[in-house]
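Please, is this right?
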Amino acid sequence: MREEIESKFHGYEVPQQIYQLIDLEEKLNKRRLSLSQIGFSPDFEQNFYSITPPDFIPFASTGGDGICFGFLTDFGIYKDLTEAPVVCVTPTNDPPLRLVARNLREFLNIAYSVPFVELLEMFWEFEKAEQVQEVLTEVEKDTGFLVKRNRGKIFRALQQTFQLEKIDVLDYLKTVKREREQSIIIPTMDGLGVACPDIPFISYNKYAFNLEAGISDSELERMKNFIKKANKLEKLAFVRDANYRYILTKSDDWAVLELVIDLLESLSLFCEAKVMEGE
């Protein structure tokens, strides 16, 4: 079991909390309960949507609309995944990538602070407490007694396992978004940007992607020329934008896929390159 899970983390050490989640799920199953009943269960499969960042490592899914949560390594800045930001991939929404927590510990706290964890991706968009309260009122009204009872048992078990505390989710999400925006050195199409906390603001060049369909030979050559002259941060911004702009698979936009994989390997980002290869 451990070896299989470790293989999904592409060389990063699996946080102990992940094993605790798996153990908790097994204990709940014996009581005919599951973390999936609160919209949050361990899931390590890289459901590779075209917009999924190459430096994203999934650890849970909600069970609905392909929504999953995972660690954002920021291209290797975070060696310890317990300190890595947590991102929600919600492929049917706009924007589809939403940074929701500074780290795993704080993510578990906000997960404990809502009646259904999938609500986090919705609350991410809200600006006013009244919007949150309106949703919570509807959820309360539409949730039957038995479901509430079972969810209460699951949340108590989650709290006891991780010693969690309830927090103001909207205030937290707004703070985290603001902090992320302030840490971005180069903004990117996916909203995540290239963040580097140890580097002050710098001037930079960004690749101007051709928005027309298809990849011409001249466009590919223009990309290669840009990469030759770009510094590391500019290259990482190129990777984020290319990953978001194109459908990078072996059947679609494969020439750009190969270019991105080669670029990641040239930066010694072998884990990220493997993700792009679908491994």
About this structure: The beta strands are 41-42, 56-61, 68-72, 86-89, 97-101, 184-186, 194-195. The radius of gyration is 20 Å.
